[in-house]
Design brief:
elongated; 60s Ribosomal Protein L30, Chain: A; 33% helix
Length: 853
């Protein structure tokens, strides 16, 4: 265990002098000026703020100092209680400032359950208590333990806050909890005890009336003298200095051009991110074992020249960033080899509005203001703050996944503000722990996952997902289809008729189905050969994209594949998660239609049964990125509409990013590979996709409460190779484990931002060949195969020298009489061009009618 000795350095001048000189505030007591500075609140209830130098909230501090002071308090509590009583104790910390303090006190006390109050409500979880903190900026506290009886035991309850000013909050808490679960002993703990004699008497009288023993443990004891009229004078000072406070610091400004690097932590699956729902003794060892590797990942991502690093936590998320800061510090020191390592400091963002004054005698020298990014439920201001964060060479911003929202990344958001204040910003996301439904830890793969219970008030009038074998040839646990079964409806039309209707505007391609292509024996053999040859390559890409999803979205991810090309990939990703980690991820298939958007009813169903923030959209591959853009626009429209109409259990927001097996178009950041290679599931239609057709959206068939539709081609069972495809790739999982680890490590070190190179190439090809419509240009092996199977192809462009990946394309092209033109400088292996003959008045570059024979 690292050294936990508290360390404090000199503070010349005292960081409370500016306030003391102007307001006449005086501190009385030993060590107080080492532990505390002063600032002015933007709060009508109190003028001054005691700013702790060792808490890690407003003042960046050495993480060993922060952890050491808290740990030492826990040791003192253990000595006070004795071993028997300490073994029965439960610790409760206060949100937001003492969540990390209380957790580290628990570490010093010894093996004990820890819970902290929270201001973040969790739908579906019944509070086991609550209380008010009258002087706070956000007053209401909730207690949301996953185990309802966590606070019910008879042993001592240890309550931890950063400072006791009057003791009223402590009395409120004990009164509320004692009424539910009486006990004989309480211990209240703080860094500083600033109560007046009258307040101390009030606590003694309160304890006698319960009756119960209440002990107090603090690093320093003292008092604050406040002159008459201090509140009014403080408000006048705030008003007088607000203009300078709001002005941006020199050299800061819009930071859109500065890149924020995401650092996957590999946070252990199933490990709580803190004490919001309870942190048990067994969790502590799991975290200790994982911290060195996480610290090394952060160190690897830092700029080599960084001499000072701030690890910035986020409101209630204090303990995990503190431990990560210490792990980073340990790694940097171990790698220094006699040189001076980068100085690591730690602090967190806050809801508390405080005046900033750039004076060495004032505790808050600078501040950044940004909008809340965790969908706050409190009715107060949505502004959030970070203090004293300027001047560092790099900032590691640590948030939980509930806070990793578009608002975090938006212009003016926290990351943008940090990028304007420092040269390098790293983002590390800790998965938000989901009580009552979180997948089991990886160490317990055989433990059944707790099923999700739908929100009891949700009544959307929507059907439940279709499952095999009644709909599709997939096993029922592999995927739930959020579709309407249209198997009994005649929807097929000849390819040429469909193409003419679509291109002339008389119909949408999703209103009918092409006649299913029945492969020849030669083509079926080609599929099997391609599958055997590519199984290892596909398995490696499946493992890579799944590991990226688990690392960045957490073990509670919900896979939602875009039917139908994405569905085999979603099934394989689910299989990898179970094979490698024992996780049984939920998987659904939904419809998205170009020009019509994603199925909004499917999103409503998902939001009623899962946290939308957990949803990961999955597709097979990218072409030019049309579906990527379609999904982003459709999700934004859905979220805007859902803002005024509750959709059930929804907590977070849907993230429109798509995870794909192959991203040759450079359209997404979560992918298994960016190579354009043959994915054998693209070679066939329904017979490799569970015998399900492509999706249908047509008036008269799809009502306002229906999902989009699809057909189940039961009559094609004899030709079905869906299971063959899945089982062949799954059998290769063991053989690609090392390769997956190498790929994931390499991808984490790269900038994976979308390049949209595919879209640019398609626009060039459309212009060069006189097509005039990018929708008729289908880039990549998968899209070209689709053109040959169910559209009217004009010609195929093949990259000169392309080999086995194009054998099936050449065979299909020969069967349909479509020329294959070899070209140089093609960013894809091949590109399929749909016949534009039905576009009235279209002409080529030579002025002749396009497609004329």
């Amino acid at each position: 265990m690292p050294d936990n000795t508290p360390r404090t350095g000199p503070h010349p001048p005292w960081t409370g002098q500016w306030v003391a000189d102007r307001l006449g505030v005086t501190l009385h007591g030993d060590r107080l000026t080492d532990l505390l500075g002063l600032a002015l609140r933007r709060n009508p209830k109190r003028a001054h703020l005691l700013v702790s130098n060792v808490l890690g909230k407003h003042v960046p501090q050495d993480p060993r100092t922060v952890y050491g002071h808290a740990h030492a308090l826990g040791v003192r509590v253990r000595e006070l209680l004795g071993p028997d009583e300490a073994a029965r104790a439960v610790v409760l910390g206060y949100a937001e400032t003492a969540t990390g303090l209380g957790h580290a006190v628990t570490d010093g006390l010894g093996p004990a359950p820890y819970l902290h109050s929270t201001r973040r409500a969790v739908p579906g979880l019944t509070p086991q208590g609550g209380f008010e903190e009258e002087h706070s900026h956000a007053t209401s506290h909730l207690l949301l333990p996953e185990q309802p009886d966590l606070l019910a035991g008879p042993g001592p309850l240890v309550l931890v806050d950063d400072e006791f000013s009057t003791g009223r909050t402590i009395r409120n808490t004990i009164a509320a909890l004692h009424a539910r679960h009486p006990r004989e002993r309480y211990v209240v703990v703080a860094l500083t005890d600033m109560r007046s004699p009258a307040d101390r008497d009030a606590l003694r009288a309160f304890a006698a009336a319960l009756p119960a023993r209440v002990d107090v443990v603090a690093h320093a004891t003292g008092s604050v003298s406040l002159p008459d009229g201090v509140l009014g004078k403080g408000q006048e000072l705030v008003a007088a200095h607000s203009a300078a406070d709001e002005a941006p610091a020199p050299g800061t400004g819009p930071a859109a051009g500065r890149r924020v690097s995401r650092v996957p932590l590999d946070w252990p699956a199933g490990l709580p991110d803190g004490g919001r729902h309870g942190f048990l003794p067994g969790h502590a060892g799991q975290l200790d074992r994982a911290l060195p590797a996480m610290g090394a990942r952060l160190a690897d991502a830092l700029p080599p020249a960084a001499a000072s690093v701030l690890v910035l936590g986020n409101e209630e998320l204090m303990y995990a960033p503190l431990r990560l800061a210490r792990a980073l510090q340990d790694t940097l020191e171990a790698r220094a080899h006699g040189s001076t390592p980068a100085a690591v400091r730690y602090s967190t963002t806050t809801r508390s509005p405080v005046l900033a004054v750039d004076d060495p005698g004032y505790a808050i020298r600078s501040r950044i203001v940004f909008p809340a990014h965790d969908d706050p439920t409190d009715a107060g201001s949505t502004d959030r703050f970070a203090y004293n964060v300027r001047g560092f060479d790099a900032v590691v911003c640590v948030v939980d996944s509930a806070g990793d929202t578009p608002a975090l990344h938006a212009p003016g958001g926290l990351l943008d503000r940090l990028a304007a204040a420092t040269d390098a910003v790293l983002l590390a996301v800790v998965p938000s722990y989901r009580p009552n439904g979180t997948p089991q830890p990886m160490s317990s793969p055989q433990t059944p996952q707790t099923p999700h219970t739908p929100h009891p008030t949700t009544d959307l009038g929507l059907a439940e997902p279709l499952r095999g074998p009644e709909f599709s040839s997939y096993a029922p646990e592999e995927v739930g289809w959020l579709l309407k079964d249209l198997s009994g409806v005649e929807l097929e039309a000849p390819v040429e008729e469909r193409e003419e209707a679509v291109q002339n505007g008389g119909a949408h391609y999703a209103e009918s189905l092409p006649v299913e292509y029945q492969p020849s024996p030669e083509y079926q053999e080609l599929f099997r050969s391609a599958l055997d040859a590519s199984a290892l390559r596909i398995a490696r890409a499946v493992g890579t994209v799944t590991e990226l999803v688990l690392a960045e979205r957490g073990p509670d991810a919900v896979l939602v594949s875009l039917a139908r090309a994405g569905t085999p990939v979603g099934v394989l990703m689910r299989r990898w998660a179970q094979h490698a980690h024992g996780l049984r991820l939920p998987h659904y298939a939904v419809s998205i239609v170009r020009g019509r958007g994603i199925d909004a009813n499917a999103l409503r169903w998902l939001a009623a049964h899962h946290d939308p923030a957990d949803v990961v959209f999955v597709d097979g591959w990218t072409g030019k990125g049309a579906i990527t853009r379609e999904l982003a626009a459709a999700v934004a429209e859905f979220e805007a509409a859902a803002g005024t109409a509750p959709v059930g259990r929804a907590v977070g927001r849907f993230d429109p990013e798509i995870a794909v097996l192959a991203d040759p178009g450079g359209c997404v950041r979560t992918y298994g590979t960016r190579d354009d290679f043959l994915v054998p599931s693209a070679c066939l239609n329904s017979t490799v996709s569970g015998l399900v057709s492509r999706t249908v959206l047509r008036d008269g068939l799809i009502g306002p409460r229906d999902f989009h539709g699809a057909k189940f081609y039961r009559q094609l069972r004899d030709s079905d190779v869906s299971a063959l495809f899945l089982d062949t790739v799954t059998a290769a999982f063991d053989a690609v484990g090392d390769g997956v680890a190498e790929d994931v490590k390499a991808l984490r070190a790269q900038d994976r931002s979308p390049t949209w190179a595919g879209w640019a190439a398609v626009e060039r090809i459309s212009e060069e060949y006189g097509i005039g419509d990018v929708n008729l240009v289908k880039p990549g092996v998968g899209e070209t195969t689709r053109v040959l199977l169910r559209r009217v192809p004009w010609k195929i462009l093949a990259r000169r020298g392309a080999g086995a990946d194009l054998e099936h394309v050449r065979l299909l092209a020969a069967q349909r009489g479509v020329p294959v033109e070899e070209v140089d400088d093609l960013p894809y292996t091949c590109v399929g061009l749909i016949h534009p003959r039905y576009t009235r008045g279209a002409t080529g570059a030579d002025g002749k009618a396009v497609g004329a024979k």
